[in-house]
Write a structure and sequence with these properties.
The protein contains 8 helices and 17 strands. With 338 residues, it is an alpha/beta fold.
């Protein structure tokens, strides 16, 4: 496509504060969000290549029956302590300064993929949720049934979402309040004492046949005077991690994706492998590293337990000083990380 035929604009929520100086907003090229400055359209011939190729770890993967352990119970929902509780894949319950968040809730099977790991309690018991944090619209991060269930039991909940995600949310439940933000924008719904920002990620969007990159993707930074937490969403490695640290400072707690990275020819521009996740964490000058996006759904070629083994090896070598690998449903208290 010739450059003269490109229609370029920059989009942000003009009602929200933009914290990056002179940032015009997210670049949109011919109606599609750019991945930073450039369009990224995944080449789906690589999906065909993946389906037709043999996984060199096929036998190892077949023998690997690892699933994350699960701590049963819902006491964490009624505690008054600030904490992070992994619910599998990229779903976390977070209480921060007494405010509660649920990230990318996918609590059931997803299309064509069954959930392999359990939950600490039935989805209907998830209560006392103030905010839903949605990093992007892929179906393993934004699930209609999960959001409907949680909102039914948390009518006070508000969704914080990327630009142009509103159509998806209205189709899920027209009564769910939401606010959209672009990169480096501060949501204005948070109560005093806590700040919530939408930040970059290196990823893409597609949910239907004709909607490639029509909805933005990103990560979240949650700050108080005592502690800063980073939820990476889905991302590949890129210079955005340095930019995030430059603007928001070091991250005390990093919730980092470490799975769905093989084969690399298909996954490397969408996801982080464990070594890349640790590199990103170090660029963020991270404190505690909590892995996610592994063990819950079978989405790729690596054996289920490989991400955990690699992280433990990296930590043993001294390159990952703050590793915590919780069970699903296990509360990690934030005051331990401040």
């Amino acid at each position: 496509m010739q450059k003269k035929n490109l229609r370029i604009r920059h989009l942000k929520n003009d009602r929200l504060e933009t914290v990056k100086p002179n940032y015009r907003g997210n670049k949109v090229i011919n109606g599609r969000f750019a991945n930073g400055d450039e369009l990224y359209n995944p080449d789906f011939s690589t999906v065909l290549k993946w389906q037709l190729s043999r996984n060199p770890q096929r036998e190892e993967k077949k023998r690997d029956d690892y699933t994350p352990p699960v701590h049963k119970g819902n006491d964490f929902l009624y505690s008054d302590q600030d904490m992070v509780v992994w619910l599998g894949h990229a779903s976390f319950f977070i209480r921060f300064n007494g405010v509660t968040f649920l990230t990318d809730p996918v609590l059931y099977d997803i299309p064509m993929v069954k959930r392999r790991a359990g939950l600490p309690c039935p989805p209907e018991q998830l209560r006392n949720i103030d905010f839903l944090l949605l990093s992007h619209g892929h179906r393993d991060h934004l699930d209609k049934k999960s959001i409907q269930t949680v909102f039914k039991n948390n009518p006070q909940m508000k969704a914080l979402a990327p630009l142009e995600a509103g159509n998806i949310l209205r189709s899920i439940d027209p009564h769910l309040p939401y606010q959209e933000a672009g990169w480096f924008q501060k949501f204005d719904l948070a109560p005093d004492g806590i700040e919530i920002y939408f930040a970059p990620a290196s990823h893409w969007y597609r949910r239907g046949v004709l909607d490639m990159n029509k909805v933005l993707w990103g990560s979240f930074v949650i700050k108080t005077t005592e502690l800063t937490l980073f939820f990476a969403g889905d991302t590949a490695l890129g210079n955005h991690f340095e930019e995030i640290e430059d603007i928001f400072g070091p991250m005390d707690v990093c919730l980092m994706p470490v799975g769905a990275y093989k084969p690399s020819f298909l996954m490397s521009k969408s996801h982080l492998n464990p070594n890349e996740a640790v590199k990103a964490y170090n660029l963020l000058r991270g404190g505690t590293f909590i892995p996610m996006h592994y063990g819950t759904f079978d989405l790729s070629d690596e054996p289920a337990s490989e991400p955990v083994r690699l992280l433990e090896q990296i930590a043993a070598g001294g390159m990952l000083r703050g590793l915590r690998i919780p069970a699903i449903g296990e509360p990690l208290l934030l005051h331990d990380f401040a």
